[in-house]
Design brief:
- The longest helix is centred in the last third of the chain and has 19 residues.
- Strands 27, 28, 29, 30, 33, 34, 35 and 36 form an 8-stranded mixed sheet that branches. Strands 10, 11, 12, 13, 14, 15 and 16 form a 7-stranded mixed sheet that branches. The protein has a 4-stranded parallel sheet with strand order 2-1-25-26, with helices on one face.
- By secondary structure, it is of the alpha+beta class.
- 34% of the residues lie in helices and 17% in strands.
- Helix 32 packs across helix 35.
- Strand 1, helix 2 and strand 2 form a beta-alpha-beta unit.
- The structure holds one RNA strand.
Length: 1176
RNA sequence: GCCCAUGUGGCGGAAUUGGUAGACGCAGCAGACUCAAAAUCUGCCAUUCGCAAGGGUGUGAAGGUUCGAUUCCUUUCGUGGGCACCA
């Protein structure tokens, strides 16, 4: 029985699948461990050998932890929304859902072959409605939240409403418009729309007009991290700034917590550094400078207030609001010129060109508050409107840009740092002693910063200020293949859908092109966008509304029938407009009595209950309503006597009653004469009525209705006017910002993840993935986790405890070198029928000039190529060039090209009749491939990113087929440290395969059959085993899989040398090996009959071999003995020996004697268990 | 320009806390077995001087700390990555 890996691996994989060996339960009996891979985007190209690297590492670790007795969550899924599927749809018309499905099937079959221990029952896909239902739901929770800067925590909009109603916004300045303040009374007087606009400014997911990165070619906006050097990360298309309405996540509010959280998680320094950079926190001060002859001061932001006396000019951004006001008459024309110039330049031009110094003087002067110096104010594009205050104080002796600017425009430079400034370049030191600096003279700069800020604050002209480079995260895309926003727009107000209505599924579209006005494809589907608010038309006529006029001639039906959702209208949006405007009119046309009541009940004057006036409920507009208690108050007028009106009153009262509303009616006389009693009646009613709306709790979060801040659901449900769906979709990072939570409780239809499940699994213990997500995915996941934590849905605020970044496996590209003929205009005449390819040496010689144009001509002539292949039809004057061309690495053996395979290669059809000039100058013609050729065609090589277009991808399927999954897994690990990038080289895989076969032979010999025995192990064999146990355990724990593989090799080599075939030794070895090579381990375990299988089924016991240090104890050691630090000999010395004894033994040694040449040593250093060093 | 990695044989890499540099594997060379091939096994394999014994040099380069440095410090060069008018 030989090592038939194909059969073994297939059998075991089927067995594991049938037995659901890797099914994980949320059973809290065992300690948990969560090992997560970054889930892949299922691209059409399939896997290459670089993809599984991280998956194998995490699989080894999961299996290892499982053996050690942990309940290990190790799931896999797909990040299946995204641009490429949609681009593909645009080109081919294939629905993204279809291509995505196909791609996933390919991925899955490739993954399955490698023998992963995923619990596939927990699979998630971001594009699955059952998944994105909860992405939408979480979005709604974020929408329903604001950031309380006092408690540094997200809270519900409800709470903010209450604050506004009691104290206005004095304690919670709007993040949108910082200068905007209102009192509680003012808040009550704002109409609904205004209130909603204000609330929108506070929401953590908010919509606003802003400058966005618009990519015309992709037809969408992009987040900052999706734009690289002014072009789109995907596709490299130009990106411009554009003002559009967009959704954002208020990540800036979390800047500090995102920074602080980094201290509590185990990410690499590089990764933390990148996130810190992205957040870009800087400490400094904001201060006002008076502007000469103007009232408004100029506010600047600086991190170096200590340089205040070195300010020689001011620079404000061209877009700064003060520019037009302060520009002097003389400078007006120049400034306008400059502004025109700035506007004409795109973002890309600004980034692309060599830094130019441009700017223009405004003619205005700021006054230095400390010495009264007049400081000219300039504008220049190097100052950005969006950062700080959009204005800086320029200190040319300390800042290089300011220095260059001053030099360029001949602005005199004040030196405040003495010798530290040489007049040639600025010096940004903080170590200099200040000079020419008034009250700061003689202070060290870094000490002066605090002193200066204190003085600035004392004078009331500025204050300490922290600034962040990070901007709020754009959260909408004008694309199709993403989560639709669960939002409808009515009269400019964003109205969230109800949780019960989720998922809002992606509608089908016929074409994927952009919609009108920069909107996404969804905007093209009129039926979907324009909401039909007549889902349940009623036939029951209940009368006309009181305000209905003859001209409108329409009817509104209050839904009162069985089975009909309350609040829906079977009327057009026109009629809704009427309802709203009617309600508004009513507010204006309040009667005297209504005003009296309103003064008594507004602002929660009755026991804290909130009343609204003229607030529509279904088709009915009551005078006052307390939604919380469903209590309506009517002050009767005299219009209730008409026939229609009576029917209407009856119908609506029945409807209101059915829906839990109670009504109190008072007459005008009661209000005028018995106000106290009226109010008392209202208060009593309020207090006796049980609340209808439950407070939200975590487990009942879905029942939470209405969404706070949106007013009555009844109102918004039927909201009239133009009611349209949001047509943007969410960006790629939406679904990936919380998928690690869904794995914990993937099937839950009640909530995104039960709190019990998330409390059990908690943080991801090990997260493995590439560095490319440093600021995107990882930052957003951390943000969502923090928000969900603040809102009480989960119990931890950092998603990933430890992050391991796998390195990139690069491709080792191979090149052939093609001779091309060019005419003098450098136009290429390709030798189409018989292209000539020369071997590497020719190319190198050509590059370094030792092979000339003439040589190649000769070469061509000498081999009669000219006549044979029609090269004589060349232009009269021509040049020869040799150009490299990628060649499929799979047909190159090392560096030697397989010429016949090359001619047959489907990727290179044009070369099927190519002529090769080999290393020694021999020519290989297409016809004579039978002829014996001694020379070779040698390819050039280069290490590059592995990609299809470079023909350097290696498909894991083929390797698994040829060597087996176990060999493949171990070889990927053996390549080098997981974190390190390294080039792929298939050749070495043989060595690993040999190792597994050698292991197999410890159990089974082709000649002798079974060779394993039940004999008792010797000390030497136990020593080998326990050294291995120790090393494997340590290496696996610290993710050093490459050294672990080599340890296995050493162990098997040693056991083979010892001719050890003993079960006592081999069984523990198989357990150690099973995370790395699960199939062969399982097979051999069943061969020798182990008590439990190392693979999962019996993971209730901790079955991992335990290291016994006693077996490795030695009594003596071969000490390396060095003379003056150079090892000269080895001496065996007992371990429990004193320094004096060691010295004696050492000095008697021949080698040491020889080096001492009779002299006495200066010193003998003896480090127990390490070495001995003799100093002469 | 700034920040972060990283640099060891022909190649991938090892040396975990400053203690025998080059483990393990690939490639290569020599040999055994074989009609032959495959498979397997044995030996050699940083470089240099030497028949050998043995010695010199050697972890990008130059300095330093130390009895001892791939490891720590300073300077510098190369490579890879991130950020880039961020005041």
């Amino acid at each position: 029985m030989e090592y038939d890996f194909r059969k073994i691996e297939q059998e075991w994989q089927e067995k594991w699948k049938a037995n659901k060996t890797y099914k994980v339960s949320n059973d809290a009996a065992k300690p948990k461990y969560y090992v997560l891979d970054m889930f892949p985007y299922p691209s059409g190209a399939g896997l290459h050998v670089g993809h599984p690297l991280g998956y194998i590492a995490s699989d080894i670790y999961s299996r290892y932890k499982r053996l050690k007795g942990f309940n290990v969550l190790h799931p896999m899924g797909y990040d299946s929304f995204g641009l490429p599927a949609e681009q593909y749809a645009l080109e081919t018309g294939q629905h993204p859902a279809v291509t995505t499905e196909n791609n996933i099937a390919t991925f899955r079959s490739q993954l399955d072959k490698i023998g992963f221990s995923y619990d596939w029952d927990r699979q998630v896909r971001t594009s699955d409605p059952n998944y994105y239902k909860w992405t939408q739901w979480i979005f709604l929770q974020i929408f329903d939240s604001w950031y309380n800067r006092i408690t540094s925590k997200a809270a519900r909009i409800d709470e903010l409403l209450r604050i506004f109603e009691t104290e206005g916004n004095i304690n919670h300045i709007s993040p949108g418009d910082k200068a905007f303040q209102f009192t509680a009374d003012e808040w009550e007087d704002f109409d609904e729309k205004r209130q909603q606009e204000i609330l929108m400014d506070y929401r953590l997911a908010f919509s606003s007009y802003g400058e966005v990165n618009w990519c015309e070619a992709l037809g969408t906006v992009l987040a900052n991290d999706e734009v690289v050097n002014g072009v789109s990360e995907r596709g490299g298309y130009p990106v411009e700034k554009k003002k559009m309405r967009q959704w954002y996540l208020r990540i800036t509010d979390y800047a500090d917590r995102l920074l602080e959280g980094l201290d509590r998680i185990d990410f690499s320094d590089a990764m933390k550094e990148m996130q810190k950079n992205w957040i870009g926190k800087s400490q400094g001060a904001e201060m006002d400078f008076a502007v000469k002859d103007h009232d408004q001061p100029l506010r600047v932001y600086t991190t170096r207030p200590d340089t205040i006396f070195g300010v020689d000019f001011m620079v404000v951004a061209p877009e700064h609001e003060l520019v037009s006001g302060i520009t002097s008459f003389d400078q007006k024309a120049a400034i306008e010129n400059y502004l025109t110039y700035v506007k004409s330049r795109s973002e890309r031009e600004r980034l692309a060109e060599v830094k130019q110094i441009t700017g223009c003087f405004t003619g205005a002067y700021a006054i230095n508050p400390f010495d009264g110096k007049e400081i000219p104010i300039w504008i220049a594009e190097y100052v950005l409107a969006g950062y700080g205050t959009g204005a800086i104080m320029a200190v040319p002796c300390g800042d290089q840009r300011d220095f260059l600017f001053a030099k360029h425009f001949n602005i005199p430079i004040t030196n405040i740092i003495g010798d530290h400034f040489n007049g040639e370049a600025a010096n940004a030191t903080k170590e200099a002693i200040l000079q020419n600096s008034g009250f700061l003279n003689g202070l060290l700069m870094k000490d002066a910063i605090g002193v200066a800020v204190n003085r600035i604050e004392e004078l009331g002209i500025g204050k300490r200020k922290v600034n962040y480079r990070m901007r709020d995260a754009g959260f909408s895309r004008q694309r199709y293949w993403g989560e639709p926003f669960p939002i409808v727009w009515s009269d400019g107000i964003a109205i969230p859908l109800d949780a019960a209505e989720l998922p809002l599924e992606l509608p089908h579209v016929d074409k994927y092109g952009p919609g009108p006005n920069g909107e996404g494809p969804l905007a093209n589907i009129g039926d979907w966008v324009n909401l039909d608010l007549t889902p349940n038309p009623s036939t029951k006529e209940r009368g006309t509304l009181p305000y209905e006029s003859e001209e409108l001639n329409s009817t509104v039906t209050v839904a009162g029938e069985q089975g009909i959702e309350p609040g829906y209208f079977n009327s057009s949006s026109n009629e809704w407009r009427n309802t709203l405007s009617f309600a508004k009119e009513n507010r204006k046309g309040q009667t005297e009595e209504e005003s009296i009541i309103w003064q008594e009940i507004r602002n929660r004057k009755i026991d804290g209950f909130k009343f609204r006036r003229q607030h529509p409920i279904a088709g009915y507009i009551p005078d006052f309503v307390c939604l919380e208690k469903k209590l309506i108050i009517e002050i009767d007028g005299e219009y209730h006597n008409g026939e229609d009106q009576k029917r209407f009153d009856t119908a609506r009262q029945n409807w209101l009653k059915e829906n839990g509303f109670e009504m109190l009616r008072f007459t005008n006389e009661q209000v005028n004469g018995h106000l106290k009693e009226v109010i008392r009646d209202i208060a009593e009613k309020l207090n006796e009525k049980k609340p209808e709306l439950k407070e939200a709790t975590v487990s009942e979060n879905e029942k939470r209705q209405p969404l706070a801040g949106s007013g009555s659901p009844l109102f918004w449900r039927g909201a009239g006017g133009e009611v349209k769906r949001e047509t943007s979709t969410m960006p790629g990072y939406a679904g990936s910002s919380w998928y690690f939570l869904r794995y914990m409780d993937p099937g839950n239809s009640q909530t995104f993840c039960d709190r019990k499940a998330s409390d059990y699994w908690g943080q991801v213990d090990i997260y493995i993935g590439g560095t490319e997500h440093a600021v995107g995915h990882l930052l957003y996941s951390r943000l969502w986790t923090k928000i969900l934590f603040d809102l009480g849905y989960i119990g931890h605020d950092e998603p990933f405890k430890k992050l391991v970044n796998q390195g990139m496996i690069q491709g080792s590209s191979r090149f052939v070198y093609r001779v091309v003929i060019k005419n003098l205009m450098n136009e290429v005449y390709e030798l189409k029928q018989h292209p000539i390819l020369v071997s590497l040496t020719y190319y190198n010689n050509f590059k370094n000039g030792s092979l000339t144009f003439k040589n190649i001509q000769d070469l061509i002539n000498k081999n009669s190529l000219k006549t044979q292949f029609g090269i004589d039809r060349l232009p009269n004057n021509y040049n020869i060039d040799i150009v490299p061309k990628h060649v499929n690495v799979n047909i190159v053996d090392g560096f030697e090209l397989n010429i016949n395979d090359f001619r047959k290669d489907i990727f290179n059809k044009e070369f099927k009749d190519a002529v090769f000039i080999l290393e020694d100058g021999t020519v290989s013609f297409p016809e004579d491939n039978s002829a014996e050729i001694n020379s070779k065609y040698i390819c050039g090589s280069e290490v590059e990113k592995m990609s299809k277009s470079k023909y350097n991808t290696v498909n894991p399927d083929e390797l698994v087929e040829k060597y087996g999954a176990d060999t493949f897994r171990m070889y990927e690990m053996f390549l080098g440290p997981v974190e390190q990038s390294k080039p792929w080289d298939t050749k070495g895989i043989e060595g690993v395969h040999r190792f597994l076969r050698k292991l197999w032979r410890l159990f089974y010999d082709d000649m002798k059959g079974n060779v394993w025995t039940n004999d008792k192990a010797t000390d030497a064999e136990l020593k080998v085993l326990h050294r291995t146990i120790k090393k494997i355990d340590e290496d696996t724990e610290r993710f050093s899989f490459n050294t672990a593989v080599s340890t296995f090799m050493i162990c098997v080599n040693e056991l083979a040398d010892l001719k050890c075939h003993k079960k006592e030794i081999l069984e523990p070895l198989l357990f150690l090996l099973s995370p790395y090579a699960p199939h062969i381990s399982a097979e051999l375990c069943s061969l020798i009959g182990t008590a439990v299988s190392p693979i999962g089924e019996d993971a209730t016991n901790s079955v991992y071999p335990v290291f016994n240090p006693a077996l490795l104890v030695e009594s003596s050691k071969e000490y390396p003995v060095s003379i003056n630090g150079k090892v000269r000999t080895n001496i065996n010395i007992a371990l429990d020996i004193t320094q004096a004894d060691v010295e004696q033994i050492i000095l008697q040694n021949d080698v040491v004697q020889k080096w001492l040449e009779g002299k006495a040593p200066k010193r003998i250093i003896y480090v127990k268990n390490k070495m001995v060093n003799v100093v002469i």
